[in-house]
Amino acid sequence: MLRLVTLVLLLPCSCSLALRRGNALYDERDFLGAVAAYDDAVAEDPDDTEAVALRDEARTQALGALLQQCTDATRERRFADAATALGKAFELSDTWSRPGTGTVEFETLGTAWLEDLRARLAARGPLSLVGERSGFRALLPHPRFAPLITALEGEWSAAVTERCDAALASVRSPFFAALTTAYCRAAGRDVTPSAPELPLFSVSPRVEDGVRGASGPWPVTLTQAFGDSPWAWRSSTRHASMSASGQLEVIYSDRPVTRTAEWTVTVPYSTTRWAQVPYTTYQYYTYPCGRSVCSGSRPVTQYRSQPQQVTEYRTEPRSQAYAATESRAELSAQVNLFVDLRPHATVLGTVLREQKVELGFTHGGVAAAGLAPGHARLPSKAEWDTRMRKAAYEKLVAALVAHWRDNYCNPPLADAEAAARCTFGGNSQPDDRRLLDAAFRDDVSTLVAQPRFGL
After folding, report:
1. CATH of 206-252+330-405, one of 3.30.160, 3.40.50, 1.10.10, 2.40.30
2. Contacts of range 168-176, beta carbons closer than 8 Å, 24 or more positions apart
3. What confidence tens digit (pLDDT) does each residue in 242-298 have?
């Protein structure tokens, strides 16, 4: 109230609706709304000094409220909320030419946030906070936040680097070295640990193709499957041996058949329904009129039941036989797949078996049933070959992963190297992760969830 009295004493009265709306919003502590209303008042009359002064005061209060929100959120360690409030204050201060707004709050927020992040990095590890790190720039878009972004990302990178260096110093075995390489890469560092080479095979195995009736590139498919398994490594020079044997077969036949098209139609019919029909009758009454009694009548509407003929509809089935040619494809496949993984593991063998019949029909259609003319569409021999190569790829990759698990993931796992070797195949289990988390003092689940650690 003191604010309004002072301004009224110093400035001439204005009757602007926008000004009165701004005053009302200011009293409700909606300072941003008040600023918008005062903007309208100034736009109506740029020489209205009262509106200009009131707008300046509302801007000051709006910025003060945002800075207070930032301070409160910082104290409660809600740094994202604090940054949102401060970022809004920065944007408004740019628009309203209020340089330096929020300097103290920015320093306080930065100090508290960095201390909190440093403590959480030490307690939980940087990879467990990778999602938070990736969101810094989206959360802090204003240019004045650039030094804070640099400092926050620097804290995260320093924590990864510290653990990367510690792991590198202790690397002695190949699979733990591979995991260390992936871990350090998360910090943007390409390292080459001093450790023996991975005991794996080249991504280009030697493939013997003996699938009869095949028309597609089976060696290419099998090579891709092996290359996508944990047994393949791009720098290895040792070649695994693979073979595929068996047969694909497609037998076609046609025969005339009679089929039936079925549909329904809506048919009208007449029936009798009892209905309440209105009619008019008269009600007689008397009333005194002077020394005598008078009488009168009035119409009254009443109802009686009366039969009526109505048209209703029912659904009736229809059917029609039509001639068609049934085309039949008898599809079969048996492909024996072998992978020689010696000396690292035993020979793997698996069989792809598939047998099915697909039918198609050629006919002229039945217009009344909405059945359009059709032509039989059966898979060609090349399409059957493509299907089986895709199935062979999926079956072989799954078998290679399972073979890895059978060879290297039998509990209990002795140490971090055994855990790294098991999870290299993408088979991450809680016990394995505990061994590896302890080795890195971090949550490495995002790394070991990827086959070959994403390398």
Report:
1. 3.30.160
2. 168/193, 170/439, 171/195, 173/417, 173/420, 174/198, 174/199, 174/417, 175/417, 175/420, 175/421, 175/424, 176/416, 176/417, 176/420, 176/439
3. 999 999 999 999 999 999 999 999 999 999 988 888 888 888 888 888 788 888 888
